[in-house]
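Standup notes, structure subgroup. Blocker cleared on the heme C input:
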Amino acid sequence: MKSKNWILAILLTTSALCFAKATNQWLKKVPQADRNRVNPYAGKPEAVAAGAILFHNNCAQCHGNDAAGKFSRPSLRTEEVRNATDGELAWLLKSGDVYRGMPRWSGLPEQERWQIIAYMRTLGPSSFPEGQK
Ligand code: HEC
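Run returned:
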């Protein structure tokens, strides 16, 4: 009985750890043609402003108001995310990573997804932890 509980505890801890960290596995799935896509709104101030609002309405609940991550949801200020191409991010937003808890955003107009990406590009590497600003 006791050893069974141990096995259960170990299984639960391992699965919790697996979910706790973004694996960036999705990056390997992006087709080459998608990687090279160009954001038509890149760097446009109106697009960044619109993207900020969209981010707060759709993404902040999981990734935090400052995009620095929340609970087990990853920060979007990491090197991996900042190094991802606009096209890679566009692919992730369209496709999601549903089994890992990242919804697909194909329901949003493509223009709005590009605006969110334009906003994400303005995020620096770090921010104060959630709630300490
Ligand atoms: C319901 C919660 C939830 C919402 C809402 C959500 N995400 Fe995510 N997101 C996740 C989770 C969980 C992951 C980690 C997936 C994984 O482990 O690969 C993730 C991963 C990501 C990643 C990849 C991070 C990395 O390090 O690989 C990006 C980029 C991202 N989300 C952007 C967004 C954007 C932009 C929005 C709003 C349009 C959004 N997310 C909304 C839960 C969410």
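Discussed briefly. Helices lie at 2-20, 26-29, 32-35, 45-58, 60-63, 79-83, 86-95, 110-120.
Next: hand off to the docking folks.
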